[in-house]
Design a protein that fits this description.
This protein is an alpha+beta fold. It has a single domain, classed as Translation factors (Elongation Factor Tu (Ef-tu), domain 3), CATH 2.40.30.10. Helix content is 16%, strand content 36%. A six-stranded antiparallel β-sheet has the order 4-3-6-1-2-5, covered by helices on one side. Strand 1 and strand 2 form a beta hairpin. The longest helix is centred in the first third of the chain and has 12 residues.
């Protein structure tokens, strides 16, 4: 209880300054450029490559959909292999359509929708 009361007092005593959000842009947030059907069970998602993202084909990255269309009992991210080469100006992932909320969201994602790409991971 004392921590809560101390926080309330701090709120009254502190003069809060505004934050310049333009200074703190997360470069890992990128838009979807293209969604392509590979076969009946696989989709390819192509995103703008995050600034300073350096990878080799076959390394993994975490794809986190910012506003998934389907969220039933599933997380909006997956650990996926990167299928694009390092020379490409975009980053591509193959998504297996397994009936999960994540794969359903990947089927419904629109060009321009944003995701966060963490990685690459070895």
């Amino acid at each position: 209880m004392t921590g809560f009361l101390a926080a309330l007092q701090m709120n009254r005593d502190k003069i809060w300054s505004t934050c310049d959000d333009a200074k703190y842009v997360d470069q890992r947030i990128v838009p979807l450029l293209e969604r392509k059907k590979i076969d009946d069970k696989t989709r390819e998602l192509s995103f703008e490559k995050p600034a300073e993202f350096q990878h080799q084909k076959g390394q993994y990255a975490i794809l986190n959909i910012m506003k998934p269309k389907i969220t039933e009992l599933d997380l909006p991210y997956r650990w996926l292999p990167v299928v694009s080469s390092a020379e490409e100006d975009r980053i591509r992932f193959h998504i297996e359509l397994d009936g999960s909320s994540f794969s359903k969201s990947c089927e419904l994602i629109d060009n321009g929708d944003e995701a966060i790409i963490y990685g690459p991971m070895v």
